[in-house]
TrEMBL record:
Organism: Actinoplanes friuliensis DSM 7358
Keywords, alphabetical: Flavoprotein, Oxidoreductase
InterPro entries, per database record: Acyl-CoA_dehydrogenase, Acyl-CoA_DH_C, Acyl-CoA_Oxase/DH_mid-dom, Acyl-CoA_Oxase/DH_mid-dom_sf, AcylCo_DH-like_C, AcylCoA_DH/ox_N, AcylCoA_DH/ox_N_sf, AcylCoA_DH/oxidase_NM_dom_sf
Alphabetized Gene3D superfamilies for the sequence: Acyl-CoA dehydrogenase/oxidase, N-terminal domain (1.10.540.10), Butyryl-CoA Dehydrogenase, subunit A, domain 2 (2.40.110.10), Butyryl-CoA Dehydrogenase, subunit A, domain 3 (1.20.140.10)
Tree of life domain: Bacteria
One GO term of the biological process aspect: fatty acid beta-oxidation using acyl-CoA dehydrogenase
Domain Acyl-CoA dehydrogenase C-terminal residue range list: 229-367
SUPFAM superfamilies: Acyl-CoA dehydrogenase C-terminal domain-like (SSF47203), Acyl-CoA dehydrogenase NM domain-like (SSF56645)
Protein name: Putative acyl-CoA dehydrogenase
Length: 391
């Protein structure tokens, strides 16, 4: 397994993964859940990147949010679906670092350092909200049904949120191949198709590795902010990928409109309206990237264990701003691509619509409007944002 021990080594590894993913990205998008992207995920799992944030006390490099955001952005600019697969993995590494006992830490961090990924089974349907759980652990056995299980299908372990015998929220870490675990490929959506975030069912599964999870959100925390930082980086990556493909199409394939020719443009890149749209779009993409770096820097300053609620709020709101803006910019950039490149760019053979489909699908992962709401409430009245994982 590759050992990554510096920010620079991590970025180099991310670039190698991105290069390996590039040739197959269109086919993975077209295949969706019909084909498990085993080769692409093997490149990710074998890169050493899964262990980026494992604490040094547990044998890891203990690299921080700045590195994680950049690694995610680099990969997402090529294939945001594959970049999203380890999003929950990094959250769960943080949870283990803060809340797991010595034996659970030893077992699971040994696995992570060996390139064995942790998938998630957290969200449910049928309740008042996604965390209104019906999954239970009773007498050491886990039973329940989960949806949006990103990464679970191809992971070594699955982290499952459940209520224990006392009704308290816990996380159970179970082997993917444990008896009673079934992961379906019923993932049929318009974007982020290669994540294959299908349904996972647990039927009387032994739950040996269990940690308290309710306590994570009973104190000021940055777990949610760090998890959302990865989502923000995915959006920035989508925007950068769409802008990259816009530039390539304009330089290599696009023709100027009839009106532009009459105005003296010999190539599409000389069309004054294309120049205006491209310049505006490129500026907004760079602004989104800058906000991402700023948010990661704030999280680095605040640390995984914030000093108090105000420090936690500072980190959460910095990420909220980056995620909200990047979500808008990614959708806009992926749409502007066609306005700049013209009718021929909509041809199915190019699959350029995947950028918009990925951006739009991922952007509604959690409500952007509430992020702006909480930012304004803090700025105008000093109201602390909610202490949960979706901001």
């Amino acid at each position: 397994m590759t050992v990554i021990d510096s920010h620079e080594a991590a970025l180099a590894a991310a670039a190698q993964v991105a290069a390996a993913l590039a040739p197959g990205v269109v086919q993975r998008d077209r295949d969706g859940a019909a084909t498990v992207p085993a080769e692409a995920l093997a490149a990710l799992d074998g890169s050493g990147l899964l262990a980026l944030t494992v604490p040094s006390a547990d044998g890891g490099p203990a690299l921080g949010p700045l590195t994680l955001a950049e690694v995610t952005r680099i990969i997402a600019a090529v294939d945001p679906a594959i970049a999203q697969v380890p999003q929950a993995h990094y959250l769960l590494v943080d949870v283990l670092a803060l809340h797991a006992g010595p034996e659970v830490r030893r077992r699971l961090f040994t696995e992570v350092l060996a390139g064995r990924r942790i998938g998630n089974a957290l969200a449910e349907r049928g309740g008042k909200h996604a965390q209104d759980l019906s999954t239970r652990i009773k007498d050491g056995r886990l039973t329940g049904r989960k949806f949006y299980s990103t990464g679970a299908l191809t992971s070594a372990w699955i982290a499952v949120s459940a209520l224990d015998d006392t009704g308290r929220l816990v996380l159970a870490f179970v082997p993917r191949d444990a008896p009673g675990v079934t992961v379906d490929t019923d993932w049929d959506v318009m974007g982020q198709r290669a994540t294959i975030s299908g349904t996972t069912t647990f039927e009387d599964v032994p739950a040996e590795l269990v940690i308290d999870y309710a306590g994570a959100f009973e104190v000021p925390q940055q777990l949610g902010a760090r998890a959302q930082l990865v989502h923000a980086a995915i959006e920035v990556g989508i925007a950068e990928g769409a802008l990259r493909d816009t530039r390539a199409y304009l330089q290599e394939k696009a023709r100027p409109s009839t009106e532009a020719v009459r105005a003296g443009a010999s190539v599409a890149a000389d069309d004054p309206h294309v120049l205006h749209r491209y310049g505006r779009t490129a500026t907004r993409v760079r602004a989104a990237s800058a906000l991402l770096r700023e948010a990661a820097g704030v999280l680095d300053e605040v640390g995984l264990v914030p000093a108090d609620a105000a420090a936690a709020a500072r980190g959460s709101l910095a990420v909220a701003a980056a995620k909200a803006f990047a979500s808008e910019v990614a959708v806009e950039t992926a749409s502007e691509l066609f306005a700049m490149c013209g009718t021929s760019s909509t041809a199915a053979k190019y699959d350029l619509d995947r950028h918009w489909r990925n951006a739009r699908t991922h952007s509604v992962h959690d409500p952007v409007d509430w992020k702006y709401h909480h930012l304004a409430a803090w700025e105008l009245s000093g109201t602390l944002p909610p202490n949960h994982g979706q901001l």
